[in-house]
Design goal:
Helix content: 25-40%
InterPro entries: BLH_phosphatase-like (IPR005939), FAD/NAD-bd_sf (IPR036188), FAD/NAD-binding_dom (IPR023753), Prot-tyrosine_phosphatase-like (IPR029021), Sulphide_quinone_reductase (IPR015904)
Number of helices: 15
Shape: globular
GO molecular function, one term: quinone binding
Structural class: alpha/beta
Number of domains: 3
Keywords: FAD, Flavoprotein, Oxidoreductase, Quinone, Transit peptide
CATH topology of the largest domain: FAD/NAD(P)-binding domain
CATH superfamily of the largest domain: FAD/NAD(P)-binding domain
CATH architecture of the largest domain: 3-Layer(bba) Sandwich
CATH class of the largest domain: Alpha Beta
Distance between the termini: 60 Å
Cofactor: FAD
Largest sheet: 7 strands, mixed
Number of strands: 29
Low-confidence stretches: none
Amino acid sequence: MDLRQIDKTVSVSPQIESADLAAIKAAGFRAIICNRPDGEGADQPTFEEIERAAKEVGLEACYMPVTSGMVTDEDAAKFGEALVELPGPVLAYCRTGTRSATLWSLSQADKKSSSDILAATKGAGYDMAGVVRRIVNGGKTPTSEGDAKFDAVIVGAGAAGISVASSLRARQPNLEIALIDPADIHYYQPGWTMVGGGVFDPETTSKTMGSLIPHGVHWIKSAVAAFEPQNNAVVLDGCRVVKYDRLIVCPGLKLNWNAIPGLVDTLGRNGVTSNYRYDLAPYTYELVKGMKKGRAIFTQPPMPIKCAGAPQKAMYLSGDNWQRNGVLGDIDIQFMNAGGVLFGVKDYVPALEEYVKRYDATLNFFHNLVSIDGDAKTATFKVSKPDTEPTEVTTEFDMIHVVPPQCAPDFIRVSPLADAAGWVDVDQATLRHKTYENVWSLGDVMNAPNAKTAAAARIQAPIVAENVSADIEGKSPRAVYNGYGSCPLTVERGKIVLAEFGYGGSLLPSFPKWILDGTKPTRLAWLLKEQILPPVYWKAMLRGKEWMATPEKVSAS
């Protein structure tokens, strides 16, 4: 808990936990304001959880979510009104506290001098110089000049961002590189399926961000508000401006938990879980272990989502657990898929269908979760089968594993870098932006038609690093991406169907068939997933050691 006083009436802080509320009350606060939207981070408690804990200790709680980097004057006015209406002193929080400090600064624009605003926020540990520039420029952040300038700026420090930073630094050791990300913790998200299956401990899937940032790369611990590529500028939370010669965009996807009414209120209880959140994956295994009979539902939203096989991986590992414990015959497994096929690459479907039969799971295609009532333990699905009128069905459950709808983050979707659908618009071979030649993108937010997986990012990172390096040397792109992605489908504990494919569903196996046939369930693929890939991720991929990821060069012809 890190409470930072701005003045006697208000303090701000990074994300708080339910367990912090008693201490916050003891510190003299009488109300809290949450400025962070639910579902923004993979390890974030919902406001409903915080509000419940606040009421238990006698604190008022106000939900005033603001999208990172998109603080409006209207938001600031509402924040100022809340400070007057709520009993004080008030604690406002978001991911890092910057949004809350920004809201306070803007709300005081007509009450305090710029120097007083700067002094108060600096005393709390926040630099609001960019906000003051915005105030004196009539609400617009000027980008002709910057607070900092780098040869290359990378937005996002997930699997793609850290990997490309390491690969680029290995090729251009004298380059001034900045990596922008507000998160304190980096997660190995492919491991969460294994946590939900009782194979991995959750702690093994996380490390501090600071321990992973490549040596010599500048870490700017902030969220991005906007891009102005015509000025080679990135605007940060707090209205600071970072200028660049070259930009690489890879912030990951937004998990839209709030798109399903009722879901946020019941996550982590009432039998409602998801392996797509760090703190909920252990609850998945807890539910599976405790379930002896009843109905278990596994959902899959419309594409695109990251790791398209993850929804059914949860189903298979759960079914295997129930089979091993002798209770499978008393459990009704229902797979609710918004799409029309079990898996997008047909070569892997026969093996998967065998496991659907083994676990006696019912496949329900064109079923999209639209609402959930945790207390009543019911889920409602919109059924949109081809050539028929859409209908809705409501079904009861004892356990439900939910995969939320996913999209590019808001600051990507509204930016000049995005295509009409909201994804960063790149050439699918070189991963260079189609309009801005000094911009590249990789990972989940770009619009190349590949699977959104960590395995794809592992291949993309050296390709982008190679092409950025070529551009620095005044040369044309010299590496191409073939759409490679991989999905290790955990069909039972000890066996995996290792799906590896590229653009158009073409098979791109890493090993000869006599060593590992990816279309069949094998123990070797399980060994790869359980014991080899985690250290490859932490010790090779994130450090720029391009094991089995050498870029394919552009043909000289």
